[in-house]
From TrEMBL:
Keywords per UniProt: Membrane, Transmembrane, Transmembrane helix
Pfam families recorded: DUF599 (PF04654)
Name assigned to this protein: DUF599 domain-containing protein
Leader sequence residues: none
InterPro entries: DUF599
Transmembrane segments: 6-28, 69-92, 119-140, 187-208
């Protein structure tokens, strides 16, 4: 049984710390200075979009826009679940899960066990993406009905409430996309831990740019 190289232990931990520290920093930046982040700017502008649609009764615009978002989330959710099924199929066809005891996933002592862990992490990553995209579809469907209700119809129907529901849908969409981005370093890990670390550095650089421009 081939033992692990030290890089297989150190570099994945460094990758995790790099991605974790970046997202913790970005989270607090969104809280402190939302208008300097893409998430804060888009949330602010979506509130005005909801207000404009409801006050000017632009029903067709609302339906077409929400339809586009639902279609995008559906495509990404379908892709994520297909990749997840493919990863599970690969593991079961190779009889790798059946042959290895559960303790093998907790104590990684060989390259054989680590290969299984890499595939399982990819599966969990795309399953997380699928969950978030389906939740975003759920919130979009709620907004699709509520945004067409006249403002004077009920006190519960407010621009602020509908904007919060819409922003929840967009938050889950963003989390789903983050899972797709994270798949890059995880896939590079299959080629070696050095590639994984380099991929995480490149990913953080790309995220730093797109997270600060709407």
């Amino acid at each position: 049984m081939q033992q692990l190289n030290w890089t297989e232990s150190v570099f994945p931990v460094c990758t995790l710390l790099i991605l974790l520290l970046y997202h913790v920093h970005y989270y607090f930046q969104v809280k402190r200075s939302p208008m300097q982040t893409a998430i804060g700017i888009t949330q602010y502008l979506r509130t005005f979009w909801v207000e404009t649609v409801m006050e000017q009764k632009r029903d067709i615009l609302a339906v077409q826009t929400l339809r586009n978002w639902v279609m995008a989330s559906s495509l990404l959710a379908s892709t994520a679940v297909l990749i997840s099924i493919g990863l599970l199929s690969y593991l079961f066809q190779q009889n790798r899960i059946i042959e290895l005891p559960f303790s093998a996933y907790l104590i990684i002592g060989s390259t054989r066990n680590l290969d299984v862990l890499k595939i399982l992490l990819l599966f969990l990553n795309f399953s997380f993406a699928f969950l978030n995209f389906t939740l975003s579809i759920r919130y979009y469907n709620h907004v699709n009905f509520m945004i067409n209700v006249p403002l004077d119809r009920d006190d519960a129907v407010t621009v602020g409430y509908i904007s919060r529901i819409l922003n929840l849908g967009m938050l889950h969409y963003t989390l789903g996309m983050r899972a797709y981005y994270l798949a890059g370093p995880l896939l590079l890990w299959l080629f070696g831990p050095v590639w994984m670390l380099l991929g995480s550095v490149v990913l953080v650089g790309i995220l730093y740019r797109i997270d600060r421009t709407a």
